[in-house]
Amino acid sequence: MSPQESKRSSLIFIFISTIAAVAILIGVDPFRLSVISNDPNFQALYVQQHPQSQATSRDRDSKLQYSQKRFVNEVNGPESLAFDPTGRGPYTGIADGRIIRWNGPGNGWSDFATTSSNWSEFCSSSKPPSEVIRTEHICGRPLGLRFDINTGELYIADAYLGVLKVGPEGGQATPLATEVEGTPLMFTNDLDISVDGSVYFTVSSSKYQRRNFLLLVLSGDDSGRVLKYDPITKDTKVLIRGLQFPNGVTLSKDESFLVIAESVPGRLLRHWLKGPKAGSTEILAILPGYPDNVRRNEKGEFWVALHCRRNLPSKISGAFPSLRRWFLRLPIPFKQVYRIFNGGHPHGMVVRYTEEGQVEEVLEDEEGKVVKLASEVNEREGQLWIGSVLLPYIAVYTRST
């Protein structure tokens, strides 16, 4: 063998050895560097790919960047916003497990309620939501909030503690629904209340808790459900099964159907409660991105908050679960994986839909200057109040008349 051939053979051997070493490292992951290293039973499921979203138009003026940041560093992860029947508020649940109320410029914020009986000053923290998440299962994490306009009671969807309610004066919330079919609720997310007092709510997963939400998103886990709590019988029953991260939920104006935001496939579902289609579920709208909460305005239209637009990597990985699982075994940090699947940089948007799922309005912050992420949008007196489970403020956008 000539020196040149020997050198070529050595390079080939080194190349093959390197590939083999990397393959073994990925397969064994001895240093637990991948985002799925702590989930030995991780499964990547197929995510249905829909045609191009109806919301193809963009907000080229990026109008949400003109929103006002309010209560900066006074609220930590305000996912959901609610105003009581007398107009006081907003009320919001924050990362340390408290529900707090805004009492006006002269009085500021005050504690209103807690969901966990274990809540203490240990829970109180100024750390970012991404760090507080480690103690959520102890301190509680209130997400969706709704007021009963007749009683003034606040209903709460706590990620770990199920559905609870608290009276108009606040205090320790009382559990209403903590299990279904003999199994504890793993990840309660959002809720709405009908005129007869029935509570409709989402359970995003029967496998993952909220503190593992990224694994839930990346896996495409389809154990999510929509449930109904009956205040008369105190029973909880399942209305819809097999959903991939059901998130926000709201009743239509006439309460003939529910609208559910299904986050992983990026769509709105309509579940009929009344009429000839009662009990059936259909797709209401294909969304341009990943939805969180959905809220109805006074006209009966639906505002949907989206964390970002869908991008090519997320579409490819959704269609090819084996490829997604292989990629997730690479030693890539959590933050980088999150960015890859969320469009590279934070850029929140909100979209208004008719009752028939037609797009009425698209508002964005393409550069993420103010509304980096959006968890909920609440239309009130000509303004949009926008909360985020990951930001330390509330954004308020004043709509042009």
What fraction of the residues are assigned to beta strands by DSSP? 25-35%
- Low-confidence parts lasting 5 or more residues at pLDDT below 50? none
- Quickly count the helices: 7
- The value of Rg in angstroms is 23 Å
Shape: globular
Question: How many strand units?
Answer: 27
- Structural category is alpha+beta
Q: Biggest sheet: strands, sense, closure?
A: 5 strands, mixed
For the biggest β-sheet, the strand order reads: 2-3-4-5-9
Helix coverage percent = 10-25%
Distance between the termini: 83 Å
The whole-number mean of residue pLDDT values reads 90
Set out the fold topology.
Elements: H1 3-28, E1 68-70, E2 81-82, E3 91-93, E4 98-102, E5 109-114, H2 129-132, H3 136-139, E6 142-147, E7 154-158, E8 162-166, E9 171-172, E10 174-177, E11 179-180, E12 183-184, E13 188-193, E14 199-203, H4 213-219, E15 224-229, E16 236-243, E17 246-251, E18 257-262, E19 267-272, E20 281-286, E21 289-296, E22 302-309, H5 312-319, H6 321-328, H7 334-341, E23 349-353, E24 359-364, E25 376-380, E26 383-387, E27 394-398
Parallel strand pairs: 5-9
Antiparallel strand pairs: 1-27, 2-3, 3-4, 4-5, 6-7, 7-8, 8-10, 11-12, 13-14, 14-15, 15-16, 17-18, 18-19, 19-20, 21-22, 22-23, 23-24, 25-26, 26-27
Helix pairs in contact: 5-6
